[in-house]
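Exercise 7.
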Amino acid sequence: MTVNASVQFNSFVDFAQKSMEAGSSKAVARADAVEPGTGGGFATRTIVAAPDKAFKLSRSITDKAKNDVARTLFQKSVIEMFGGEDRIPESVKDAMLLKDYGAGKPLTARRIMAVKEAIDQSLAKSAVAGGLQRVNEFQLARQETKRPFPPVALTDDQMSMAADLVEKHGKGLSEKGVKLLSNFTVTLFACGKPADMSLDACVKKYAQDVSKWCDFNPGDPRFAAVDAKMTEHARSVLDEYLSPKFNKEFDGEGLHQSFRKDASRASFFINGQDPSHGTRTGDAVIEAFKQAVPREHRRAISSFFSQTTGGAMIGMSQQRALFPTAGLPQGIDLSKVEGSQMLISSAFGYDDPFYQIPKTQHNDSVYTLNVAPDGRSAKVTVETKGDIFFAAVNCNNVVGSFAWKQEYEFDLTGDRPQIVSAKVGQTFEA
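Solution. The predicted structure, written as tokens, is:
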């Protein structure tokens, strides 16, 4: 089930919430001035308190007419949200008390909030039902690994409890966030919880975590402080790779041994071409790389054109310091840097008993190299996809998926290659 945003419905809810907070649950809604739509939206009516009162023995024809106008407007806003009257859940219709429409009866703040709560509960039930289906689809997809992944099944009572928890803690989350929270909550009932936490506390914590995660592209200003630290670390790593200390990591043609190994088992694109053409010998990839990159730049670029780049993402996703280098002997801890909370990450085990295993596990990576036609710059892009695990208690059920993108830009104009920037992006799905 999905609902459309309705400015008009929100104006009714805003009136009702303010009335309830003021202790006036029986305040009567009245449609007032017309507000023009913004951004191409429809015009709406402001909602104010009427001089009419609930449960009056009699009321004037004028009051009855104005009550009908307010009720009709409210009903239309609910229909608009669900995309048709026939799509409104029965529980929401029951909360609306449809028999009172067209009868001149007042629409009270308490009734508006009852309808809102019914909508929230219906959406939560739908989200949990969808979560159960999605989690089982994840389980079915993993059967290809030849390991038994039994389907997740919940009783009616568990489904109802799960819906209550998603409704309670899912407020303010994006649609994607609610789906991920639903997937987690369904799995929580199936796999169990930490012994010292209630179901409510578990769902609350996960909702708080999910509320921070974002989709963002490399270069997003919200992640700029993390990118700056990533760049500092990447430069220090490059300094080490170019030092005599690491000579043994490279062959006579200046190729890092990890790149040579990955050439036959990963996907590579070089200057817009797929040199492997579906083969896995690695020879074509290595030859294309040598053709694209001069001998004096191979050591620098091949160091980042392989799974060696994965260490930074694993470190960040587990809230651990990036590995130390000669220039940064303590490594760099990014977990407290502004913007780092946007990344799907968590400590686990002793550092965070709620999560017993890492929350993310990456699968395949795709490596792309683009060298400028003049040879003065180059960019290495690493795109990695993976699964988001339930992780609370030692259960490796999948609740979502993610994709990370790393971009490393090189300046090749001087005697020694330099890293201009290191940037990270992320998307995730429930």
